[in-house]
Design goal:
Order of helices and strands: HHHHHHHHHHHEEH
Strand order of the largest sheet: 1-2
Strand content: 5-15%
Distance between the termini: 58 Å
Structural class: mainly alpha
Number of helices: 12
Length: 232
């Protein structure tokens, strides 16, 4: 067995463990640059839990890499951006989520790349955007923006108007994640749009607080509306 395959299996075993979150510290046994390849591979795992846990592990690994040397971390971020480029031939599954997790966990990366993350939902020819046409891929960008907003809300301000537009997205995950992000931001201008989604029973899997759970658009919208009302 090659060293790469063995490391990938070892990392997967950590992520598959019931106490996976507590075991993430074990990844520090390897240089972060060695872990990125296996983690990219695990974003395509058959098990949805593993895929999402790989996103969290990727964020931690990117932060460790940035602490070691920002230039190495920039190369990793550029690799993520390339995987979302149509010219790369990849669909980029899990990549926007990895960018969001990385920026949430490292301030230096967040300040350099938050505009890139936000630009993936900029559906406006007048803006310098990298809009992701694929609805499920764009869903990852909404999740990544919400993840960043949890820690550094000021850095996702450029995305606010596009999050508002996404409340009417045809994809339920995009509607729900936009509502979630707007609630985190306490966006008062979104209140009527959030209330309009209260009866939306469409559901999708949401990774939140370390677990994948089914969430409804209406449930997230009501939660977000409650946060906005309290912060008004």
């Amino acid at each position: 067995m090659s060293g790469f395959r063995q490391l990938k299996q070892t990392v997967r075993a950590i992520l598959a463990a019931p106490d996976w979150n507590a075991r993430l510290d074990e990844l520090a046994a390897w240089p972060p640059a060695q872990l990125t390849g296996p983690l990219f591979g695990l974003l395509l795992d058959r098990d949805e839990d593993i895929r999402w846990r790989a996103v969290e592990a990727f964020g931690l690994t990117a932060a460790r890499l940035a602490d070691t040397g920002m230039e190495q971390a920039r190369v990793l971020m550029r690799s993520c951006m390339w995987r979302l480029n149509e010219e790369s031939g990849n669909l980029g599954w899990g990549i926007p989520e990895c960018i969001g997790a990385s920026l949430a966990l490292h301030e230096g990366l967040a300040r350099e790349y938050h505009r890139i993350l936000c630009s993936y939902i900029f559906d406006d020819p007048a803006r310098d955007g990298n809009y992701l046409d694929h609805a499920l891929l764009r869903r990852g960008a909404y999740w990544g923006i919400a993840r960043l907003a949890q820690v550094r809300p000021a850095l996702v301000e450029p995305a606010r108007p596009f999050l508002m537009t996404a409340l009417n997205d045809a994809d339920p995950g995009n509607r729900g994640l936009a509502a979630w992000a707007l609630g985190i931001l306490g966006a008062a201008e979104a209140l009527s749009g959030l209330r309009a989604l209260a009866g939306d029973e469409a559901s999708f899997p949401l990774f939140r607080d370390g677990e994948v759970r089914r969430a409804t658009v209406g449930g997230l919208a009501e939660e977000a509306a409650g946060i906005v009302e309290k912060s008004a």
